[in-house]
């Protein structure tokens, strides 16, 4: 815990140093693609008091000056599976972005999916020594939070204060300077598999780069694809990636729950490949051009030339109806959405004031997915595209780049984490996420 605390603070310092130099790279390591964006900052960070609790929560104007993507290799279920292949893919993406930007970058901020994330709700309370809340008081109340025993082989990826209460007033975002006697805090802590983080850090170092920050893809996709009202009133972001589907729940502009399903668009492609007996490349083309989630009467008559290069004329000249392709794709899509529904139910999603669900990620572009998701997840479902970022190429504005764009926002406007404060790393018994959700329902 102490090592993690120090390493995260060191990353924060490297991020600040990179921003002062003017450029930093954003790296999205996914199962299907590796994307790299290079940001240039127009000036020093301008801190605003209403952006959060910590002095880290500043805002800086930036623009994208370089972007590159490459086919991901060596990544399965969002986790590194072959180190050399992933290193080669990262080098290709970073070098392409550097060439476009005509600058060299030394520091990257990375995000990844998978790694079996688990969410915990923590709480703590102290009596104030003085009647006015100061920043040391905030650090002190975080230090008494009941940190759970999250087990060996796990690391804390995010630990964010999501709510403060001063005496009988709850729902405070920044209690500094306010007068009271008893200060309480609710925090959300996200842990992931330690080996996934260590492999990513080692892979980035092998590319002669320094890691200046790390985040969950589910979190970064949520802050990019969800509008402000959805993050404020309560909503979930479903990031349908290639090898994993990320789930993040937001309330009061804070992430309060995150999880991942170890299935994604690549599994749909595999089903098409096996069902039609074609190569993965041909299956991906069929899914992208002709795929869908809801069949209509026209689809029985819409024939698709499969093609192939096996040398067997009859096999290579086959044609199937679009309805058959949808019949192969739909069961897997339903399975993914049912898994997502189970995770949301386990998190107590129904307790939120609003149950808006935003679908994003490359897999969300399947035609008819919105209607199918409405039947399984609930009525309030929409497709989300990432916010427009200055300088972003048109090719990188689609849902597949939600996590990369969200990582840009995370880099320039970081959410407060408990390692931004002087907090002793101590552990106490756990508090369940369901109790935390009930607390939110009762007090917000």
UniProtKB/TrEMBL annotation:
It comes from the Bacteria. The keyword Hydrolase does not apply. GO terms for cellular component: cell division site; cytoplasmic side of plasma membrane. It is a peripheral membrane protein. CDD domains: ASKHA_NBD_FtsA. Belongs to the FtsA/MreB family. Cell division protein that is involved in the assembly of the Z ring. May serve as a membrane anchor for the Z ring. This is Cell division protein FtsA.
């Amino acid at each position: 815990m102490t090592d993690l605390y120090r390493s995260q603070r060191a990353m924060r310092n490297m991020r600040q140093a990179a921003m002062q130099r003017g450029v930093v790279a954003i790296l999205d390591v996914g199962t299907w693609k590796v994307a790299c964006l290079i940001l240039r900052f127009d000036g020093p960070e301008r801190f605003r008091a209403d952006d959060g609790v910590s002095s880290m929560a500043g805002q800086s104007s930036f623009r994208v000056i370089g972007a590159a993507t490459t086919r991901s290799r060596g990544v399965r279920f969002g986790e590194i599976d072959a180190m050399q292949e992933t290193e080669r893919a990262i080098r290709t993406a970073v070098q392409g972005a550097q060439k476009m930007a005509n600058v060299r970058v030394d520091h990257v901020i990375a995000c990844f999916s998978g790694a079996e994330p688990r969410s915990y709700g923590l709480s703590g309370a102290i009596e104030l020594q003085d009647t006015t809340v100061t920043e040391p008081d905030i650090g002190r109340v975080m230090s008494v939070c009941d940190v759970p025993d999250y087990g060996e082989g796990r690391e804390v990826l995010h630990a964010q204060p999501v709510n403060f209460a001063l005496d009988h007033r709850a729902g405070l975002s920044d209690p500094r300077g306010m007068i009271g006697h008893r200060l309480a805090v609710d925090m959300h802590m996200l842990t992931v598999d330690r080996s996934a983080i260590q492999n990513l850090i080692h892979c980035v170092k092998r590319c002669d780069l320094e890691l200046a920050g790390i985040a969950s893809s589910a979190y970064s996709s949520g802050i990019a694809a969800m509008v402000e009202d959805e993050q404020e009133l309560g909503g979930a972001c479903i990031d349908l990636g290639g090898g994993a589907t990320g789930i993040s729940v937001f309330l009061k502009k804070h992430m309060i729950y995150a999880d991942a399903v170890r299935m994604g668009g690549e599994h749909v492609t595999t089903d098409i490949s096996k069902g039609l007996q074609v190569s993965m490349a041909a299956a991906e083309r069929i899914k992208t051009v002709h795929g869908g989630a809801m069949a209509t009467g026209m689809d029985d008559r819409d024939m698709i030339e499969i093609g192939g290069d096996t040398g067997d004329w009859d096999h290579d000249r086959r044609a199937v109806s679009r309805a058959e392709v949808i019949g192969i794709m739909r069961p897997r899509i339903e399975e993914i959405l049912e898994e997502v529904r189970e995770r949301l139910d386990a998190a107590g999603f129904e307790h939120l004031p609003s149950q808006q669900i935003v679908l994003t990620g490359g897999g969300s572009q399947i035609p008819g997915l919105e209607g199918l998701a409405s039947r399984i997840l609930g009525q309030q479902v929409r497709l989300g595209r990432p916010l427009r970022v200055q300088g972003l190429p048109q090719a990188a504005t689609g849902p597949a780049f939600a996590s990369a764009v969200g990582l840009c926002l995370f880099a320039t406007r970081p959410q407060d984490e408990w390692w931004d404060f002087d907090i002793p790393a101590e552990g106490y018994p756990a508090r369940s996420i369901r109790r935390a959700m009930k607390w939110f329902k009762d007090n917000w």
